[in-house]
């Protein structure tokens, strides 16, 4: 069996494939060049830092820059996907 995660959709779609195949287990990622991240998720993941006025100013500047380039929409802010091994 494997989990298939499709980063091309917002939010990413996740599905269990071949659920009766117990001989192997993996994660398959259908990639995109960019992902959309909700601003609320950034704030939530920042934890206590999200209450820091300096952090808030930095986030606002980042979002303003992204908006100027058309990288913000109802699904969130566009982020480049960096691949690592």
Description:
This protein is an alpha+beta fold and 85 residues long. The chain folds into 2 domains: 1-32, no CATH class; 35-85, no CATH class. The chain has helices at 39-46, 53-68, and strands spanning 2-6, 13-17, 26-30, 34-37, 72-73, 76-80. The strands form 2 sheets. It has a 3-stranded mixed beta sheet, with no helix packed on it. A 3-stranded antiparallel beta sheet has the order 4-6-5.
Secondary structure blueprint with pairings:
Elements: E1 2-6, E2 13-17, E3 26-30, E4 34-37, H1 39-46, H2 53-68, E5 72-73, E6 76-80
Parallel strand pairs: 1-3
Antiparallel strand pairs: 1-2, 4-6, 5-6
- Return Rg in Å: 17 Å
- Count of helical regions: 2
* Residues in helix, %: 25-40%
Using DSSP, what is the number of strands? 6
Brief overview:
The chain is of the alpha+beta class and 85 residues long.
Keywords, separated by commas or semicolons:
alpha+beta, 2 domains, 3-stranded mixed sheet, 3-stranded antiparallel sheet, elongated
């Amino acid at each position: 069996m494997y989990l298939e995660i499709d980063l091309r959709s917002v939010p990413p779609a996740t599905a269990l494939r071949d659920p009766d195949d117990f001989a192997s287990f993996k994660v398959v990622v259908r990639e995109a060049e960019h992902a959309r991240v909700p601003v609320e998720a950034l704030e939530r993941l920042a934890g206590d830092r999200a209450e820091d006025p300096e952090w808030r100013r930095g986030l606002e500047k980042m979002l303003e820059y992204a908006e100027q380039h058309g990288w913000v929409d109802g699904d969130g802010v566009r982020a480049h996907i960096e691949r690592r091994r």
